[in-house]
Structure prediction request, 339 residues.
Amino acid sequence: MKKEIPRYLIKIPKFFNPIFGNLIKKKFLFFLYSIYNNFVYFSKKFLNLNLYHFYNENIDYTCSLCKKKKIQDCFFAYNLPDFNIRTLKRKLFKKFYFKSIAKCSNCGLLQDYNRPSQDELNSFRVFFNSKDQAVSEEIWHSYPMPNDEIIKIYNKYYKKKFLKWNRALKFITPPKKILFLRPTLGFDIKYFKDNYQNIECYFTEISKISEKTIMQSYNDVKKIKLNIDANYVGDFNKYSNFFDLIVSNHQLVHVYNLKDSLDKISNLLISGGSIIFSQEISVKTRNTFHYNFYDELMFVKILKFFFNKIKRIDDTGYHEWSIVNYTTKKDNPCFFVIK
Prediction:
């Protein structure tokens, strides 16, 4: 399972690594990388060419997980934006196009250290006000989504998962208050409403299309002010020790601060509460919005920092290379954890 270097990354030889070495070497390499990265910028901006690079301008090398500033390896990478990034001004372009992928030598997490600030993220949202506008699939660009497309998404990503959940999910006490983090089009919500009685459902989304679909379908589901798009901000303290169950769908790979995000998720749970992590292993180093790259072994290691019990639910999702190449059973599992 475990690949030494993920696909589409090239390890930078130690001599050319701009982080290691004496001050003279670092300054010289910084100068060379700056020249080359300007070339990368103009190649994308005017020729729409995506070139391998390592960005090292004003980077904070604080680990997203352990908060140490210890770098083991750096990698050349390239970005394949799913939207027209060339419309961004130069400063924003550099933050959302350039990759600064390296591995923390303390905890072992591979991550992109070129993380935008909150102000830069807010400026980006002026151009693309939701996740829907930053993807190429036309079905996410207007509401309502055609019903046949909704069925396709369900069959591809959810049908198998729910069959596996029917056999694997065992609660000592059935959940009553459930929070859904990014419940795409409401499929996860429908599953729990169909299978559990007298539940209170809450959700937060990064997709406006998905949010509108859920609000239209379920008038008793509450949307709460928790932002999970890159940075976790909002009413987290208000819902401390509130939920019996949280269902998290493919959002940890996108966060800038993995420790802060998992701390906040954990604090939302009552003692003995549970979380289902779904589609959380996805090693896509060319994706503009993926910042944390972990295989299954690393993901389980991360979960053990925050939760007492971890259960693997085998083969719950669609098989694609960015998942099955990085899981122990070559499948797409969910993880059921207990606080």
